[in-house]
Amino acid sequence: MVHGGEHFTGSVLIDEDVVKEIEKCIDLAPLHNPANLKGYQAARQLLPHARQVAVFDTSFHHAMPPHAFHYGIPYVHYSRDRVRRYGFHGTSHRYLNYRFARLHGHDRSAYKVITCHLGNGCSMCAINHGRSIDTSMGMTPIEGLLMGTRPGDIDAGALTYLLAREGMDLHDLESELNRHSGLYGVSGVSSDMRDLLKQAAAGHERARLAIDIFCYRVKKYLGAYLAALNGADGIVFGGGIGENSPEIRAQICENLDIFGIKVDPESNASVPDQERLISPRGASPEMWVIRTNEELLIARDTLRCMLGIPHPI
């Protein structure tokens, strides 16, 4: 389930009360929650005696403090309209943090980690001893990093300007922000980073610009989250781009020596499918590539819910 609003702080067995609460979140995720519920109903019809579990994309970020999730708008829009930062990709960020800790032989609560889920959708998370304290996506998945077809951070005033100047309606604007922006909108070529790297190497200026914006946004959030955490033990790259593009990882980490961030070129360029340290031995923070595994955490959460095992941090 993509959106659990403020009600769901973890995975739960689905019953009618849970369904009603998920339905209340439909206006927060109109494209996803109805489809998720249809899947639940279809499975229930085919397997009426099976227990089903809802795992929420937003629940990991419920640990964020109020100063991180509130927007600077009239408070009534939070209390009445539920406008706030919720964050997404929570299952991926939780796995990357868990795996980093396991690779070091300790519990996830022992470390401060910045996780970078970089794919067609992108987000970053500042994790303080196992708890999400900030994340780049906001009330919707549009905010934050430049993505395949989403713009990430944009001045809200620019949107009202476009509505007035271009005669766009809300449907047009939503479509442009979700389907025609980001890497694709800037480059005019593709939303796929692999294509853009090839085009940029061939001299396509807008493909290079899209790549540069992408890397610069990640770099800015790294700086912000290092400040929020007062330093980090590790920075982890996951997702399709984060796991498979040594060029992008290298560009993101350029000129961050002041934070101790260094990338070992040989480790960075080695075999993609292996989780590995890509910073020099002894460097701090450590830089890692870890293949995210949301499906594994979903399976584990399902088992925990069915057996009544308390969920770890």
How helix-rich are the residues, as a percent range? Answer: 40-55%
Structural class call reads: alpha/beta
Q: Report, as a whole number of angstroms, the end-to-end distance.
A: 20 Å
Number of strands: 8
Shape, please? globular
The major sheet is characterized as: 6 strands, mixed
Classify the fold: give the CATH topology of the domain at 106-293: Nucleotidyltransferase, domain 5
Order of H and E elements: EHHEHHHEEEHHHHHEHHHEEH
Describe this structure in words.
- The structure is a single chain.
- The chain is α/β, with parallel strands linked by helices.
- It contains 14 helices and eight strands.
- The strands form two sheets. Strands 5-4-3-6-8-7 form a six-stranded mixed sheet, with helices on both faces. A two-stranded antiparallel ribbon has the order 1-2.
- Strand 4 and strand 5 form a beta hairpin.
- Helix 5 crosses helix 14, helix 9 packs across helix 10 and helix 10 crosses helix 12.
- The chain is globular.
- The two termini are 20 Å apart.
